[in-house]
């Protein structure tokens, strides 16, 4: 199209030039002048046309150059952004590489520490095995000793029964005879056969001694007295010790008013028993209860120890109060119907002071031996710290308690590094841990399977895990994921007063 236009315009310039030549030649009368002027017109038209063409071309070229410059600037700006991003990515990659390098170094150090711990553990395993064998031997010896003591107790009971029969015979003969002399041969004709050591006791047969003759039968706790009498004996002994301690420390500096008020309420049997349910998970079916003792004043208000009281020097009084409260609560637990029927248990926490009191603990064992119905449904709870402090001294007592049918539990757990298999041999059937402690253990291990595996392994050796202080449904959902079978806390019920 441009070519045709250019040709037409060139033809127009030539036609105009020729017309100018003709006109100018006619006007001037000189052909050469007309020719020259015509050629000049043609040349000027061609030059102006060329100038216009070149000017348009230059404009298009300039516009193209401007567009190209804008594109180049846009490209350069994009490239600068890409370079900046690449630099930032390189810096981030460098920081990540440094973190990875630091993590690798930390992992190497931890691996080395684990290898060292593993080596130390392997060296310690033989010692643990020897200790376990030693403990097993001690337990076996304790069991044999218990069997021997039981056999001796049965023999003493038989001897006591024989002596009582002989005393009754002597008393009846004395009452029937006119003279006391014939009573002596009667005793001599029937000496006690089981134990020669007890034979001299029935021989003083004159009239005055027969009234004192029942004195040899004094060790009645060994003769399995009725439950009521045994309970009275345990409570009376605890209250007598409490009264003695209060009297021995009869000073305001040694006995605070709150302690004296608690002692008086214990002596007056102003004690309430509270029971908190322990339920199965996830069904929430009540199966056990944990019992708490509360002491009340004359107006019915609860009595507690002053929190600001300095307990140093008052340990004997505190121990006597703990023991008396336990004795009072056992009087009520023996009649308590737990929700789970025959399979249910009544948990009661035994403080470290009671565990350390060997005299009271021995009396408690005699009480439970005389009350197998109570011992069979009782679970005594010991804090982990108390067991670690007094466990070695209480081994024989724990064996005797286990033989009565009583079971045990550990609570206030702060460290799971425990030889649970050895504890099973001593009668421990439960372990109570707080819900927060369980979550901390799972977070530290960064694997719920660790806690789930612990619960399963304990269940496999005969120990049930009870999780305490469960407050919300959200925490319950998390705990159920650990396969823990028993739970306790405000979510399942508050402690309620046991009505006698």
Characterization of this structure:
This protein has 500 residues and is of the alpha/beta class. The chain is built from 16 helices and 10 strands. The chain has helices at 2-28, 31-176, 183-189, 208-212, 227-248, 257-267, 315-333, 352-356, 358-370, 372-376, 384-390, 395-403, 420-425, 435-445, 448-460, 473-480; strands at 271-280, 286-296, 302-303, 346-349, 378-383, 407-411, 428-434, 464-468, 486-487, 496-497. It has an 8-stranded mixed β-barrel, surrounded by 5 helices. Strand 2 (286-296) and strand 3 form a beta hairpin. It is rod-shaped and about 190 Å long. It starts with a helix and ends with a strand. Mean pLDDT is 78; it is low at 177-231.
End-to-end CA span: 120 Å
Radius of gyration: 52 Å
Helix content: 55-70%
Structural class per helix/strand content? alpha/beta
- The succession of helices and strands, N to C, reads HHHHHHEEEHEHHHEHHEHEHHEHEE
List unreliable stretches of 5+ residues.
177-231
Count of helical regions = 16
Arithmetic mean pLDDT: 78
Strand order of the largest sheet: 1-2-4-5-6-7-8-9
Inertia-based shape: rod-shaped
Tally of DSSP β-strands: 10
Percentage of residues in strands: 5-15%
Largest sheet: 8 strands, mixed, barrel
Brief sketch in words of this structure:
With 500 residues, the chain is α/β, with parallel strands linked by helices.
Write the layout of secondary structure elements.
Elements: H1 2-28, H2 31-176, H3 183-189, H4 208-212, H5 227-248, H6 257-267, E1 271-280, E2 286-296, E3 302-303, H7 315-333, E4 346-349, H8 352-356, H9 358-370, H10 372-376, E5 378-383, H11 384-390, H12 395-403, E6 407-411, H13 420-425, E7 428-434, H14 435-445, H15 448-460, E8 464-468, H16 473-480, E9 486-487, E10 496-497
Parallel strand pairs: 2-4, 4-5, 5-6, 6-7, 7-8, 8-9
Antiparallel strand pairs: 1-2, 1-9, 1-10, 2-3
Helix pairs in contact: 1-2, 2-3, 2-12, 5-6, 5-7, 5-9, 6-7, 9-12, 14-15
């Amino acid at each position: 199209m441009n070519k045709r236009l250019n040709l037409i315009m060139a033809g127009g310039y030539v036609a105009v030039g020729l017309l100018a030549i003709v006109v100018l030649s006619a006007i001037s009368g000189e052909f050469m002048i007309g020719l020259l002027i015509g050629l000049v017109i043609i040349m000027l038209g061609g030059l102006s046309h060329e100038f216009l063409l070149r000017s348009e071309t230059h404009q298009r070229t300039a516009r193209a150059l401007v567009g190209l410059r804008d594109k180049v600037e846009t490209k350069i700006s994009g490239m600068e952004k890409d370079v900046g991003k690449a630099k930032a990515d390189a810096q981030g990659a460098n920081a990540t590489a440094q973190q990875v390098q630091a993590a690798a170094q930390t992992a190497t150090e931890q691996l080395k520490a684990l290898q060292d711990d593993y080596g130390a553990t392997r060296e310690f395993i033989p010692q643990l095995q020897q200790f376990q064998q030693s403990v097993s031997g001690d337990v076996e010896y304790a069991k044999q000793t218990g069997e021997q003591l039981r056999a001796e107790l049965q023999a003493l009971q038989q001897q006591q029964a024989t002596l009582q029969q002989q005393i009754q015979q002597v008393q009846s003969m004395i009452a029937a005879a006119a003279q006391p002399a014939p009573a002596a041969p009667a005793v001599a004709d029937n000496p006690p056969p089981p134990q020669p050591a007890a034979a001299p006791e029935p021989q003083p047969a004159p009239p005055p001694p027969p009234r004192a003759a029942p004195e040899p039968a004094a060790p009645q706790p060994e003769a399995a007295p009725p439950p009521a009498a045994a309970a009275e004996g345990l409570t009376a002994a605890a209250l007598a010790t409490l009264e003695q301690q209060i009297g021995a420390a009869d000073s305001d500096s040694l006995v605070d008013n709150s302690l004296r008020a608690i002692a008086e309420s214990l002596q007056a049997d102003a004690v309430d028993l509270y029971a908190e349910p322990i339920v199965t998970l996830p069904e929430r079916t009540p199966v056990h209860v944990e019992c708490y003792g509360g002491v009340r004043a004359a107006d019915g208000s609860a009595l507690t120890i002053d929190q600001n009281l300095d307990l140093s020097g008052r340990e004997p009084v505190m121990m006597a109060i703990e023991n008396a409260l336990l004795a009072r609560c056992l009087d009520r637990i023996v009649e308590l119907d737990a929700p789970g029927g025959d399979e249910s248990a009544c948990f009661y926490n035994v403080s470290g002071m009671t565990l350390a009191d060997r005299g009271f603990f021995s009396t408690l064992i005699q009480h439970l031996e005389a009350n197998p119905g109570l011992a069979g449904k009782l679970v005594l709870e010991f804090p982990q710290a108390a067991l670690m402090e007094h466990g070695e001294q209480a081994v024989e007592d724990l064996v005797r308690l286990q033989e009565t049918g009583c079971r045990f539990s550990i609570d206030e757990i702060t460290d799971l590094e425990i030889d649970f298999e050895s504890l099973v041999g001593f009668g421990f059937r439960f372990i109570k841990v707080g819900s927060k402690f369980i979550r901390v253990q799972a977070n530290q291990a960064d694997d719920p399977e660790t806690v789930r595996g612990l619960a399963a392994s304990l269940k496999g050796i005969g120990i049930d895990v009870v999780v305490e202080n469960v407050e919300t449904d959200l925490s319950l959902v998390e705990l159920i994921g650990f396969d823990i079978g028993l739970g306790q806390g405000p979510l399942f019920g508050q402690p309620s007063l046991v009505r006698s």
